[in-house]
Amino acid sequence: MDASHDASPACASERLNHALLTLKKAGYRITAPRRALLDLLIHEHGPFSADELHRRLPSGMCDPVTVYRSLVALEEIHLVRRCDFGDGTYRFEFNTGEHHHHHVICRQCSSVETLDACFAAGLERLVRQMGYTNVTHTLELFGTCVCCQTRLAAGSR
Amino acid sequence: MDASHDASPACASERLNHALLTLKKAGYRITAPRRALLDLLIHEHGPFSADELHRRLPSGMCDPVTVYRSLVALEEIHLVRRCDFGDGTYRFEFNTGEHHHHHVICRQCSSVETLDACFAAGLERLVRQMGYTNVTHTLELFGTCVCCQTRLAAGSR
DNA sequence: ATATGTGCAAATTCTTTGCATTAGA
DNA sequence: TCTAATGCAAAGAATTTGCACATAT
User: Fold this and answer.
1) Structural domain span for residue A77
2) Is B139 on the interface with A (CB under 8 A)?
């Protein structure tokens, strides 16, 4: 068996190669901005807004618009996943292809932790029983993280 | 006991009175747009965007901006709840104060059904165990409703 | 009487689009 | 070579804000 057939490579450089191959196979061209975006998304973790991504790219790499367009393309072929934290800005993360997961977002500092499990499978089943097809869901959790609790308590002394 | 102390009146006119009382007690003034908005939200069901709400109000009732400002006020005192269906437009619904619930949104026709139960209590508990406080969540389900399945099948004949 | 709410216009923020130019395959 | 990708500017959509005027209490 060829290792390139592996659905979800574990190491970062393999992930990048795999992603670039997926990009090419889908008929997209491999360009510097796309390579840089994938590289960034694979190495740095936690979902980023289009603006954050653009600022983290090597300066002068590309126009902000190109980031948006690239993200749309990458989302289309499921290399990245779009997250909606309800603050009017989408965040994007690399789609490892592993199981579905969710986020815990701190309302104060916007830090994000990943919950490594999906708990809504039963709910999706219920909705399918209601007659719906193509069922998906979004589930995000919000709270105040430990750091911010400490910080807020200190600030109010 | 006074019936006005009841947390969640079941009938529409009681709900309106109760809501107006809450509004006043919170220090807000009872104005025609706010009364009309609450009335609409209590009687018509399914979450509405600010624009939909404005179009459904008696014409000339108020400026669209007033709808936004009223919704912010009503949300603040938990008379309405803001829903995010990930399409770039918030929807608002009257907060009956009853148990938490979720929506099933048809991706084709944007119809909304309500799921009368909350399935994420265990998940919130887990997140609290991770150290977070003020834990909340958003959970929405998406699919293709029965009508749209039929319609799409008919269209492709 | 006085603070709160409203209308109108304009600003903001995030995202998308049009079009001429550049550059992958 | 030839189509897809990019940069720049501008459009779009939803929402928010500033300020003078109107109105609920």
Assistant:
1) 1-97
2) yes
Secondary structure, 3-state, chain A: CCHHHCCCCCCHHHHHHHHHHHHHHCCCCCCHHHHHHHHHHHHCCCCEEHHHHHHHCCCCCCCHHHHHHHHHHHHHCCCEEEEECCCCCEEEEECCCCCCCEEEEECCCCCEEEECCCCCHHHHHHHHHCCCEEEEEEEEEEEECHHHHHHHHHHCC
| pLDDT tens track for B33-73 | 999 999 999 999 879 999 999 999 999 999 999 999 999 99
Q: Give the side-chain half-sphere CA count within 13 A for B96.
A: 16
Q: Is the distance from CB of B67 to CB of B37 less than 8 angstroms?
A: yes
Task: Among A97, A114, A143, identify where a domain stops.
Answer: A97
Overall pTM surpassing 0.85 (yes/no) = yes
- Cα dihedral B28, B30, B36, B41 in deg (nearest 10): 40
Radius of gyration of chain B (CA): 18
Which of B45, B62, B97 is the C-terminal boundary of a domain?
B97
Please, are residues A92 and A53 in contact by the beta-carbon 8 Å criterion? yes
Contact state of A145 with B131 under an 8 Å Cβ cutoff: yes
Q: Do A110 and A97 touch, CB atoms closer than 8 A?
A: no
By residue count, chain B amounts to 157
CATH number of domain containing B116? 3.30.1490.190
Model confidence over B129-156: pLDDT tens digits? 999 999 999 999 999 999 999 988 887 6
Strand D lies under 7 A from the Cβ of residue B68: yes
Question: In this structure, is the CB of residue A25 within 7 Å of any atom belonging to strand D?
Answer: no
Return the CATH number at A49: 1.10.10.10
